[in-house]
Amino acid sequence: MRSLLAGTALTLALALPGFADGLTDMSDAERAAFRAEVRAYLMENPEVLLDVMNELENREQIAAMERDREMLAAQSDAIFNDAASYVGGNPEGDITVVEFIDYRCGYCRKAWQEVDQLVEGDGNIRFVLKEFPILGEASVLSSRFAIAVLQLHGNEAYKSAHDALLSMRAEPSSDALMRIASDLRLEPQPIMERMNAPEVTKVLEDNHRLAQVMDISGTPTFVVGGTMVRGYVPLEAMQQIVEEQRANAG
After folding, report:
1. What's the pLDDT tens digit per position in 17-37?
2. I want to staple 129 with a disulfide (CB 3.0 to 4.6 A). Which of 41, 86, 94, 111 is the partner?
3. Are 149 and 241 within one domain?
4. Per residue in 173-204, pLDDT tens?
5. Residue 129 clears pLDDT 60, i.e. is over it
6. Is 198:218 a contact under the CB 8 Å cutoff?
7. Which of 86, 81, 82 is nearest to 161 (CA)?
8. Which domain holds residue 166?
9. CA–CA separation, 159 vs 168, rounded Å?
10. Last residue of some domain: 74, 95, 116?
11. pTM for this structure?
């Protein structure tokens, strides 16, 4: 382990601008002596390496956040103003929360009611849902059903279908989806026919294309104002992120 850490430190040092050029000016004996000195120092002071690695990680996080900000700015309309996606909460809210979701994702199910609490409890959040099925054909089937409901019956019916799909324990077969439609007092057959329509396929293709550009590979993924949140985050942490984004926007 110590040899690994020492090697990592030397690698980091070599990455510094101009440092590698200095080493090439040394003789073989001088380079060997230098490497031995570095290794000995790190063996005696391993906390230095931990500090370096922590600083490197911090810089990488800052760089990732900056890349996300640039990406969100470039894709702003597709993320926040997509006419094909469900919009709930307060349509005139002062901050928008966007969620990329897969109905068969365990963490999406875990986040589901907490996200509802976030939106309803705040009262000033505009909430956008983007269908992003990535866990197989059953996920695609569920998303096609939800999009078909949205296109045929609007936001309120979509949200009811969305909730039903997230709470459903059985596999989303055609029969199960037809039962959901009937339970929601919607005519099942037009929805089932709409599921394979080009308009539904286009929504899925557009969402997957957007996710690829945004480097989204898992669900749930959230966009909260000007920041991305990858993965499940507990309610209190999401509330804090919302407040931070409000403060930054102000």
Report:
1. 444 455 567 777 777 777 777
2. 86
3. yes
4. 999 999 999 999 999 999 999 999 999 999 99
5. yes
6. no
7. 86
8. 76-249
9. 14
10. 74
11. 0.76
